[in-house]
Amino acid sequence: MNFHFTNMKLLSIRMLLVAVLAGGSFSIAAQTNDVAVAPALSASDREKATLEKHIKPILAALNLSDTNKEAKVREILVLHLKELSAWHVQNDAAIKALWADFNKARGKQDPTNADAALAKIDAMYASFKPQHDKFISDLSSALTPEQIESVKDVLTVNKVKVTYDVYLQIFPKLTDEQKAVVLNDLKAAREEAIDCESMTEKSAFFKKYKIKIEDDYLTAQGYDPKQARKDFAVKQKADAAAKKTSNEPPADDKP
Fold first, then answer.
1. Rg (Cα) of the chain, in Å, rounded?
2. Residue 174 and residue 84 in contact, taking contact as beta carbons nearer than 8 Å
3. pTM here?
């Protein structure tokens, strides 16, 4: 009986092997069904995920206690970000080429062609201004001016404050009037940068205004921005060395 039973088992195994070699689908399909395969996200799901990625930090910064107001702000952001994305799909290729022209001209110290490239970029973004203005107007119906400032800061990763604080270190002798001009120009950069999608282009708009601040305004005010930056770099290096030295243990305590 045992011999017969063993033969039957061997026969069953041989038949299964033949079936697998002939088609292969039965065994493989069975194994595949045992593995959980994550379904690919649809285009709609990808869009929702992208929108949420941008909206979540804005709502977190606003920290609205009114759920109805939060829902309204979310709706405003969704509609605006969709319009922004659609506009960039149509215009990004041309815009990137113009920024390349700008950087090339700056590299050659050719302010005339650099300004010409900026003028063309501004002309392209003029077509988005109605949506930009609508976005700010819609936000104004739900938020205070201070809250709208927060939205703009999140959209530009707080570049106004970060850049302004660095300017105060590079140019420690700025008067209150000069500080106000610098801050106003940085906010103008932010106003244009919120219409960008990529961080590279947001930074490019801040660069545009930093050139204006340093080459035009501060130079006219009697500062030497290039030398001030060199002095600041030397100071940073010295401060880092001093900090490293102060953190080192005494000679007797070194391993």
1. 30
2. no
3. 0.78
